[in-house]
Amino acid sequence: MTAASTPSSSPSLLRQTGNQRILSIHFPHLSADRVARIRWGASWLTQGRPDHPPVVFAAKIDNAMRLVALDTLAERVGLKRGQGAADARAMCPSLDVIIDDPAADRALLEGLADWCDRYTPLVALDGKDGLFLDITGCAHLHGGEKVLVNDVLSRLFLLGVEARAVISSSAGLSWAVARYGSAAVIAPEDAERVLAPLPVAALRLPEETVALLDRVGLKEIGDLLQAPRAPLTRRFGSLLLLRLDQARGHADEPLSPRLPVPSFSAERRLAEPLQDEEHILELARHLSGDVRLSLERHGEGGRLFELLLIRVDGRVFRIQAHAAVPLNDADRIAALFRERLQAVHDDLDAGYGFEILRLSVLRSERLDPAQDDFSGVPDESQPLAAFADKLCARFGPDCLTFATLAESHLPERAGGFAPLTDVATVIGSRPVDEKACPENRPLRIFTHPELVEATAEVPDGAPRSFNWRKTQYRVARAEGPERIAAEWWLDGEGHPTRDYFRVEDQEGRRFWLFREGLYGRETSSPRWFMHGVFA
Hints:
Elements: E1 3-7, E2 22-26, H1 30-40, H2 44-47, E3 55-61, E4 64-70, H3 72-76, H4 85-91, E5 96-99, H5 102-115, E6 123-126, E7 130-134, H6 145-158, E8 164-168, H7 171-180, H8 191-195, H9 207-215, H10 221-226, H11 229-236, H12 238-248, E9 264-274, H13 277-298, E10 300-311, E11 316-327, H14 330-343, E12 354-366, H15 381-395, E13 401-405, E14 415-419, E15 444-456, E16 463-468, E17 471-484, H16 488-491, E18 498-505, E19 510-516, E20 527-533
Parallel strand pairs: 3-5
Antiparallel strand pairs: 1-9, 2-7, 2-8, 3-4, 6-7, 9-12, 10-11, 10-12, 13-14, 15-16, 15-20, 16-17, 17-18, 18-19, 19-20
Keywords: DNA damage
Organism: Sinorhizobium terangae
Domain UmuC: 53-171
C-alpha cells in the first residue's frame, strides 16, 4: 500500500512551461476497439483476433455513405478513410460495415479518461481519439517516465484498447510523435531533432494548409525550421508558426482538465483488491485521516469530498459527499461516505474488486478554530450540521430545504425554498428586514394565483362578492387597495398592474385577492385572482 496527500491550487487551465511533461495517448482504432470489446470481450487483444472480416464504420457525408473509421485489418487490405462504402465493399465483398456511433465512442473515451486518473488528476480530452495527461511531478511515483509509458500501454492492451503514448515537454510535440513518430519519451533537448523528420500534418494544421505546403515543397517540419519566418507568415498565416512554436515548446498551449482539480487528496494502491463494503469504509476512514492533516496545515475544511474507486477491470466509480459546514474531522468525513455507500449500494458493482482508492477534497473553505464550552460542543451548528450531512448523504443534496427571501415586487417571487447546503445560512444569519416581509401578508400564499369571478365597483372598488372553487363568497369587510407594479425588466413594460385587497366574508373567513390591470388605462375588463388565505 502506498499513500499520498497532495494539495494543489486547482488551476482551471494547465499552461505549458519549461519543466512541464505532457503525456499524449492516441487511440488509432477507438471505434473498432469498442465493438471488439463488446463482441469478443475485453481481453480480445491478448487472445488474438478471431477469424472475422475487416470492420469499417460508415457515416453519411455529402449525401453519400463514406468510411470514417477502420480496424487494423481493413487498413491492411488498402481501405482508406473518406472512401465510399460501396467502393470499399467492391474491393472487399466480405466487409463488415457498421454505422458510426460518435456518442458511444465519446463515452468510451471519457471512460478511458476516468481510468487515467490513476496516473494524474490533470486529464484533458484531445479531440475524438486522444487524451492529454499532465504528469509533471508524477512520473517518479510510477518508476520513471519510461516505466509509466509501458504501464499505460500494457494496461490498455489488457483492457482491449490499442494505444500509442508519448511523453515530451509540450502537448504539440507529444501529439505529433504519437501519431507520426516512433519515440516514447523525448527529452527537452531532443525536441527539434525528433520533430524535424515528421510531416507537416503533424503540426495539427488544416488540410488546405498542409496541401498548400506540399505543393511548394515544404513536406517535413524540418523544412519549416530552416525557412525564414516572415515569408511563411505572409503566405500561410500566423497559425503555422504558432503550431510550430507550440510543438517546439516556445509558445504556451493551455489544456483544460475535464474535471475539477482536487485541492487535497490521499490515495491507496492495493496489492489485493477490495470487494467488501466494510473494508472500503475502513480504508476511507484512514484516507480521511491523511486528508485531515493537509486540511489542518492549511487551516481549511472540506465542503465537497469525492471517493474515487478504480476497479481491476478499469471501470471507475466516483462517489461525492457534501458537508453542511467545513469539515476536517476524519470520523465525520468517513461517516459521510458510509451514508453515501448505503445510498448507492445497488449501483456499486465491485466486480473482481477495487485496486485504487482516492479521497479528494474538491471544494474547501477557511475553517477558524472554535473553543469548546463545558458541554463539549463548540457551537449550536454542529448537531444540525451532522443531521443535515446524514440526510443529504443518504437522500441527496436537495432533500433538505429552507425558506429564503428574494428581492422582487411580486409576492410569488419574493420567497421560496433553497437546498440546505450551508448551515451558516440558517444559524447566525442576519435578521430579516421587516420591509421585505410585510405584516399584512397571509400565512399561505399560492405559488400560482387562481382565477376567480368577482363583482366590484369600477374603477378601483373592492370586491363585493366572488366565486372561487365553485363556491360563492359575500364580502363583509375589505381593506385596500395595495398597488404592486410589475417588474418591467423581467416581465416587460406592458405587464398589468395589480391591486391587492384583504377581504373578509360574512362567516369571518379572510382572503387575499388582487385585480389584474387598471380599469380604463391598461384594460377594459380587469381579471380577479385569489393569491392567498389568512389563518
